Amino acid sequence: MSSTSEATSPRAGGLGYLMFASRWLQVPLYLGLIVAQGVYVYQFMVELWHLISDVVHGPFPTGYKPEVAVMLAILGLIDVVMISNLLIMVIIGGYETFVSRINLNDHPDEPEWLSHVNANVLKVKLATAIVGISSVHLLQTFIKVRETPNDKILWQTLIHLAFVASAIGLAFIDRLLRTSPAERTHA
User: Fold this and answer.
1) Minimal CA–CA distance to 98: which of 119, 72, 67, 123?
2) Predicted pLDDT at 57
3) Which of 126, 127, 168, 186 is deepest in the core (most CB within 10 A)?
4) Where are the domains of the chain?
5) Backbone phi, then psi, for 173, in 5-degree steps?
6) Alpha helices in the chain (DSSP H)
7) Could you report the average pLDDT of every consecutive run of 10 residues in the chain (187 residues)?
8) How far is CA 69 from CA 63, 72, 142, 146, in A?
């Protein structure tokens, strides 16, 4: 029996269709991430309220100078926003790549990157978002350098550098995959 007739047999077609349809099992996962997004919005609002309350009523409970305490609180807010952005990339990009196309009919708010999203692009975007999040955490550690043990600073720095190297490696691989062998020899 040839491979063509096997692929068109009812049994093979049914199994293939079942495998293809199994991608819809990911929908509850993406819905769960939307709920997690709501948790991050709540967390952001709680932290913002604490910041406003501390600025208005003082004193700051951290023991830092007010300007340092405000900077640390703002970095915490930025961290929440960056993780929230990461969630959006995973929800929209993952659904678009692995489940089904999102037909936005040229909606004016459609993210620019959505038109050319694929698994490699998504990996690079996620890796760079993780580097950004790691940068915020490392900056917080550097601001609190007097209270932070040296070994913790060293490990956070090494882990951050590993994230940076991974992001650069993924971007390089993505670039190699997007260019043809002829383009690489002329570059």
Assistant:
1) 119
2) 80
3) 127
4) 23-115, 118-187
5) -65, -40
6) 3-8, 10-21, 27-57, 66-88, 94, 119-143, 150-178, 181-186
7) 52 80 92 95 94 82 77 90 90 87 80 74 86 92 90 95 94 82 54
8) 8, 5, 13, 14
